[in-house]
Write a structure and sequence with these properties.
The chain is of the alpha/beta class and 229 residues long. It has 9 helices and 9 strands. A 6-stranded parallel sheet has the order 3-2-1-7-8-9, sandwiched between helices. The protein has a 3-stranded antiparallel sheet with strand order 5-4-6. Helix 6 links the parallel strand 2 and strand 3. The longest helix has 17 residues. The model has no long low-confidence stretch (mean pLDDT 96). Bound molecules: 2'-O-acetyl adenosine-5-diphosphoribose.
């Protein structure tokens, strides 16, 4: 099979009870993205934004990884460095299912970040605007998540992995948000095969060589069994 790059999105955690963003009752139908997921929104109302991510952190802590997360952990055990797993999710469920090497391109709920000095530390369950940084003591702490208008993390590593990939797989992502939405085109142009696993094909359906439609908890374990036998 060679080298596999997998990109996951909110759909892989949907059956763990965590809402997606753009489905019928998704988070962006209930919250204004500009208010809770941009640097400008945070500057206007840090408490609202901290409360939004405190709720996400609580939901993630109460959720359990599902059979799709577990299947990707098995795949990592079987093929090791030939798997490069990058997630847009901030929920930590891949790690809790046993995956060890996960690239969090949109950050993670379980770390806090100091906007003043760049220090990172384990996030408390409830973050507050008046919290100070344990390193520089300034009250500039924020969730360690990437907001719209900010550069996602570890992009150089991700593009290097895509350039070396034989197969690119997108799981449970709508393909609406760049740069992640551009990975499939990049993978294709570098010669990789492309596979989408999703409840319904996403925005970039034409760029995938193969589509497996179905809920992640069924489709992902079946596909992993196909790969590792
Ligand atoms: P979306 O909510 O945009 O898309 C979720 C995808 O999962 C959709 O294509 C659904 O069809 C699919 N889906 C839903 N339930 C599923 C299931 N049980 N099994 C398989 N697929 C299922 O979420 P993302 O693509 O992850 O960024 O969103 C990308 C980014 O937009 C997020 O990381 C977040 C958001 O705004 C930031 O906040 C910066």
């Amino acid at each position: 099979m060679g080298k596999i790059v997998i990109l996951t999105g909110a759909g892989i955690s949907a059956e763990s009870g965590l809402g997606t963003f753009r489905d019928v009752d998704g988070l962006w139908t209930k919250y204004d993205l500009a208010e809770v997921a941009t640097p400008e929104g945070f500057a206007r109302n840090p408490r609202l934004v901290q409360d939004f991510y405190n709720a996400r952190r609580r939901n993630a802590a109460e959720a359990e990884p599902n059979a799709a997360h577990a299947a990707l952990a098995r795949l990592e055990s079987a093929i090791g460095d030939d798997l490069f797993l990058v997630t847009q999710n901030i929920d930590g469920l891949h790690e809790r299912a046993g995956s060890r090497r996960v690239i969090h391109m949109h950050g993670a709920l379980d770390t806090a970040l100091c906007a003043a000095c760049g220090h990172r530390w384990p996030a408390p369950a409830e973050m507050r605007p008046e919290d100070t940084c344990p390193d520089c003591s300034r009250p500039a702490t924020r969730p360690d998540v990437v907001w719209f208008g900010e550069m996602p993390y570890r992009m150089d590593e991700i593009y290097d992995a895509i350039a070396a990939a034989d197969l690119f797989v997108a799981i449970g992502t709508s393909g609406e948000v760049y740069p992640a939405a551009g990975f499939v085109g990049e993978a294709r142009s570098q010669g990789a095969e492309t596979l989408e696993i999703n409840l319904e094909p996403g925005a970039a359906r034409g760029l995938f060589d193969r589509v497996i439609a179905g809920p992640a908890t069924r489709a992902v374990p079946d596909w992993v069994a196909e790969v590792i036998g």
